[in-house]
Amino acid sequence: MPLRRWHRWAAIPAGLLLFFVALTGVLLHLDMIRLGQQPPGHGTPVRQAAQPLPSNAELAAMVARVADAARADPALEVRTIQIDLTGPRITVGAGAGGAPGGARLLLDARTGERITPPAPPADYHYVLQDLHAGYFLGWTGRILSILCGIALAILSVTGVQLWWDMRRRGRKKGLYWK
């Protein structure tokens, strides 16, 4: 089968997947605009200097505070406790350690005051993220996304090669096929 036919038939499924990824990406950005949020890493200030490491007694008190607060919430499954030394205040978090958006308890480490996180996006936002990244199919979806990305790169190269060959043969004078 000539390269042009392979190129055409491989481009159809890869193009459909690219269209799907582009559509879900646009919907994700529209949802972020609706919520007044910025894309991750956009518009964030330069990383702040870390606070000095607390003493052992302070660390023990911080962990005790978050442990007491976590025990008071029976619905919270605690697998990790994290101490964040960046920012204007030290925070202590406890949670399952799973995907972003999961249940998590966040406290001001010095006062023990609970920090309320911003409202999470609607459930469909996470569904769109899973569809956009291929996570809804697990490892199969990730591998499929990688293979389609490779296919699109190869299709780009073979498309330029086909266009160049047709132009060199004189069958193609302009930029586009008619």
Report on this structure.
Keywords: Membrane, Transmembrane, Transmembrane helix. The chain crosses the membrane at residues 9-30, 143-164. This is Putative iron-regulated membrane protein. It comes from Sphingobium jiangsuense. The protein has 178 residues and is mainly alpha-helical. The protein folds into 2 domains: 3-37 and 138-168, no CATH class; 48-120, Nuclear Transport Factor 2, Chain: A, CATH 3.10.450. 51% of the residues lie in helices and 8% in strands. It has 4 helices and 3 strands; from the N terminus they run H-H-E-E-E-H-H. The protein has a 3-stranded antiparallel beta sheet with strand order 1-2-3, covered by helices on one side. The longest helix is centred in the N-terminal third of the chain and has 33 residues, at 3-35. The radius of gyration is 25 Å and the shape is elongated. It starts with a helix and ends in a 10-residue tail after the last helix. The mean pLDDT is 78.
Summary?
The protein is mainly alpha-helical. It has helices at 3-35, 56-71, 123-133, 139-168, and strands at 80-84, 91-95, 104-108.
SSE layout:
Layout: H1 3-35, H2 56-71, E1 80-84, E2 91-95, E3 104-108, H3 123-133, H4 139-168
Helix pairs in contact: 1-3, 1-4
**Count of helices?**
4
Molecular shape = elongated
Total domain units:
2
CATH first level of the largest domain: which class? Alpha Beta
**Taking all residues together, what is the mean pLDDT?**
78
Biggest sheet overview: 3 strands, antiparallel
Q: What's the total count of β strands?
A: 3
Radius of gyration: 25 Å
And the CATH topology of the largest domain? Nuclear Transport Factor 2, Chain: A
pLDDT < 50 runs, ≥5 residues: none
Order of helices and strands: HHEEEHH
Protein name: Putative iron-regulated membrane protein
Keywords: Membrane, Transmembrane, Transmembrane helix
Pfam family, one: PepSY_TM
Transmembrane segments: 9-30, 143-164
